[in-house]
Design goal:
The protein has 247 residues and is mostly beta strands. It is 15% helix and 43% strand. The chain folds into 2 domains: 14-91, Beta Barrel (OB fold (Dihydrolipoamide Acetyltransferase, E2P)); 94-244, Trna Endonuclease, Chain: A, domain 1, CATH 3.40.1350.60. The strands form 3 sheets. A 7-stranded mixed β-sheet has the order 1-16-15-13-10-9-8.
Length: 247
């Protein structure tokens, strides 16, 4: 089925300050990264990504950090981007994915999710004490959108999710399936913060339970969408729909 045409004029999420460029020395303890800046200063930055960061944490990689300006944080620098494969930028900050998807919906870029009058974030729902990332509403019509940030990929241009075993991600699929059974629209949305892939697949070899949960959810009416992003040290914006391939 051909992918819909995206709005290539969407405004990007802009970084609030100029990013600092350097070389990754190591990522460790999940939340920390040591970086040698181009000024030759070595700093420790916060790593806003709790996953394995498969393929995105190689020592020697070019990285970009954001200075939060905080005077209270122990690590005021925050890791935002990494260069992989020699020229492809990847946004590793999982905290940005919900904002990126919301902006892309509201700008008209995500053509599949138009026609709703109101958008709410982090709304409680379901039987497993969950919060939906985005709830789109128009009168009695509801669309539950669960956003997943995707950074892992293999050489063939295939993005993979998840990059580590995620019990929580499987739970979210069960919650979406329950909404679909109740007659609501339910969407799993893969926010692919990279530009060098053409499709998204479940990472069955990493988390087979998630793969099974995705197939079961889709069989019950859950829709799977994916968009990639244009990324630069100035900002990020979702741009193009990608195929979601579930063999």
């Amino acid at each position: 089925m051909p992918a819909p045409t995206a709005n290539v004029n969407a405004m990007p999420m802009e970084f609030s300050s100029l990013l600092l460029e350097g070389v990754l020395l190591r990522r460790y303890k999940r939340f920390l990264a040591d970086v040698r800046l181009d000024t030759d200063e070595t700093v420790t930055a916060h790593c806003p990504n709790t996953g394995s960061m498969l393929g995105c944490k190689e020592p020697g990689s070019r990285v970009w950090l954001r200075d939060t300006g905080s005077t209270t944080r122990k690590y005021p620098l925050s890791w935002e981007l990494v260069e992989v494969g020699g020229n492809a930028l990847v946004g590793i900050n999982t905290g940005r994915s919900n904002q990126l998807v919301r902006e892309a919906i509201e700008s008209g870029t995500v053509v599949e999710l138009q026609g709703y009058r109101r958008t709410r974030a982090e709304v409680r729902y379901g039987e497993e004490n969950s919060r939906i990332d985005l709830l789109l509403e128009d009168g009695d019509r509801r669309c539950y959108v669960e956003v997943k940030n995707v950074t892992a990929a293999v050489d063939e241009g295939v993005a993979l999710f998840p990059d580590a075993v995620s019990v929580r991600a499987s739970k979210h699929l069960r919650e979406l399936a329950a909404m679909a059974r109740q007659g609501h629209r339910a969407v799993i949305f893969y926010c692919v913060q990279r530009q060098d892939v053409t499709e998204v697949r479940p990472a069955d070899a990493i988390d087979p339970d998630y793969g099974r949960a995705l197939r079961e959810a889709m069989a019950q009416g859950v829709e799977a969408l994916a968009y990639d992003a244009d990324i630069s040290p100035r900002g990020i914006a979702l741009k193009r729909p990608l195929a979601v391939v579930v063999p």
